[in-house]
Amino acid sequence: MGDQEPSTLNQKFDDIEMLEIPDDSASSETESLSDSSASEPLKDKPSKQDYIRLQDWLNSDDVIEFQFDSGQYNDSLTQNDVSKSYTKYINSLFKIIEGFTNDDITRIDLEDDEDPIGLISASAKFGNSARKAQRIHKIDEAFTKIVENLTQYIHDIESIGVDDETTEQFYYLLSILDCLHANYFCSDTRMKPESIAKWINRFDYKPDKELVESVMVNSPKPYTHPQFWNTYLSQLITRGLLTQAIAAIEKSQYEDLEENTPELFSVIQDFSMLLKNYTSMSMKHQFPEWKLSCCEFRDLFLKFKANITDSKDLIILNQIYDLLCILTGLPKTIAIHCDKWYEIYTALSLYQVRDDDKLFRDYFNVAISEKPPALIEDSDDLNLISEQCFVNILEEKFLKMLVSVDTIDSATAAYVARLLELKGLLNNYYSAINSKDLQELINRKTISEYLLTTHAYQCLNSHFLVPVGIGLLSNNDISSSSQSFVNNRNTISEFLPHYECKTNDDLEWALTICAKLNLIHTARKLYQIYGKKSLKDGYLYESLNMFVNCYDPDSMTNESNEGMKQVHHIIWDIVFQDSLVNNRPIKDELINNIISHKIDTGFDIHPVIRQCLSPYAVLVEFFKSLEQSRSTTAMDNLSKLVHLIRFNHLPKKFYPLLLCQIIPFLIDSGMKFQLPDLIVIIELIDTFEFQANDDEYTEGENLYKFSISNIESTTESYDWRKMLQKSGKTLPKDLKSLIKLLRNEVVAKIGKVYVDHM
């Protein structure tokens, strides 16, 4: 192996030997990574944690462990315009990658040998090739969309007023993507030279404003300006800006030559026509004919010179000759008129041979030999970093390029890596693998999986990007090995309880994820968390519904037990207690409609909730019966109440206030009791007095005292407190006094029964 070349990727890469695309030299190089000089990511993006390094992960069975940052996540719960734009950008990239799954485009399909073992028909082979070409075309289209989305993101942050330094970084990032797009993701080879020109002109636009003003604005006759032909036009032509070049000639005032120097006038006209014909003929596969015309025109210049005597006109003629040498693709002339290697590369792409993709590497080699790149190791200059990326891309050192992209925006690096992976451009970084061994291919770890997984982890630490993180981790095309699937499933399970569900839709989404991945325990935990939140916010039924979904009669987990405890707490300590203490139904319309069966048939009530609400339903029915005309036979009115008090699971703290409901019947002289009825009442009093332990007795007394001390301004007509006071009697101050009152009234009724039967 050759000498290793160090590079970085945010403190995760270390020296890792990887195969590199061999060049024409006899010795092979290896491209490697270290973490010696990683740049910090932009601060307005989700930050990176110190995850396992790529080299360690690729060469082991280790997994990438998720690290949740609660502080970072909490900070992300609110958004400004910048973070909204970034969220929009990341979502757009994710949808592109997700589209491959929907179209069934996978790394395995693209890498798998399209010629299986055995005899196949020519038509089948053609079908496989056509299908693969179609998928490659979709990958190219996807890369184009990434470039478009990045362009839109830059436009958005510029309109917001983000600082120039940040915007500048993304412009450089866009130039790097332009380079990748032009050289590896341009589906139509005919358009590749134009794509290269677009990349170069966006990165380093020429002619500059000062030259344009000097030549075209401040000069009365631009065609006579000493820099018009050999500088201004040469820059336009070498960069493929032919429309501007044609316009410049037309506005150069060269018409004066028609009368004085018709030969030169004719040369300029013919030259302009050549420029006008370039694009149309190239797109019609007529580039060779166009170039032949250029060569023939160039070869006539000795004849033109013989007919021109004026020295100034001869200078112009010689300069036009140089431009024709550029148009005919002569490397030395092109190099003379270019300042940078990438300008030479562009001109050669445009004017040598356009339609042969294999020749572009030769153009690059010629360009860097004529004008070697000005590369400085560990430079902070984004211009130099970008130029280094261009060289790495054209030398197919894609990992080094990804390192630089990562320092600007790690998310973009991850999605770009996925497209590079799908197109097979990263295959040479892995050890040799038998493509026919499908299982080995599936279980192979990849660079794009690493970058997308760590990107997904960043998304999980940023609230509005969580769906992207979950989507990436649950995408089996990205993490195809069984080990990755298990780890990603566990990561999602670990994270979801931290996710802040701001709306019911958020919670439904999280629960859908749990159902899709069979995360039963996580779903119960979510129900528990948001059951407590709903309870805190006063949504009783919603809280009940959450907690009852935590419950599993066949499970003994904490969530299941806690869920049932919370259901009992809401039913008894909130719903039933509030109603009993205030002698009225609770002020919750939904709960009351449920027990009164006044809900839509499509409203599904969990059986456990119905069952648990039944004691409250009985109490409300008792209250309603008190509003109606009463029977003079006491037990006709008190039967529901007696059944409720005798309910085995009724907390004994409620006995005193339930017994209080009997008082209006005992003090009503017109109410008839049978002796067995009174004995039942005595038994109910005895049950509480002699069976309640100290805690139950204290709780019952506290509820009783609260009830008599907190009488609402407007009470129901059947309120025992109101009726007792109307009768002229004082409310008992404690349970001892209450029980004494009850016993005295029962004894009085027993006496009346005996008197009535004498």
Give an account of the 3D structure.
- There is one protein chain.
- The chain has 758 residues and is mainly α.
- Helix content is 64%, strand content 1%.
- It has 38 helices and 3 strands.
- It has a 3-stranded mixed sheet, with no helix packed on it.
- Helix 5 (122-160) packs antiparallel against helix 6 and helix 31 (607-627) packs antiparallel against helix 32 (634-645).
- The protein is elongated and about 155 Å long.
- The model is unreliable at 1-44 and 113-124 (pLDDT under 50).
Task: Summarize the SSE layout with pairings.
Elements: E1 4-5, E2 18-19, E3 30-31, H1 54-58, H2 70-75, H3 81-102, H4 107-111, H5 122-160, H6 164-184, H7 192-203, H8 209-217, H9 228-238, H10 242-250, H11 257-260, H12 262-283, H13 287-299, H14 301-306, H15 311-327, H16 331-336, H17 341-351, H18 360-370, H19 382-394, H20 398-408, H21 410-422, H22 438-442, H23 447-460, H24 466-473, H25 482-495, H26 504-517, H27 520-536, H28 540-550, H29 558-582, H30 589-595, H31 607-627, H32 634-645, H33 655-660, H34 663-666, H35 675-691, H36 694-709, H37 720-726, H38 735-756
Parallel strand pairs: 1-3
Antiparallel strand pairs: 2-3
Helix pairs in contact: 3-5, 3-21, 5-6, 6-7, 6-19, 7-17, 9-15, 10-12, 12-13, 12-15, 13-15, 17-18, 19-20, 20-21, 21-23, 23-24, 26-27, 27-28, 27-29, 28-29, 29-31, 31-32, 32-35, 35-38
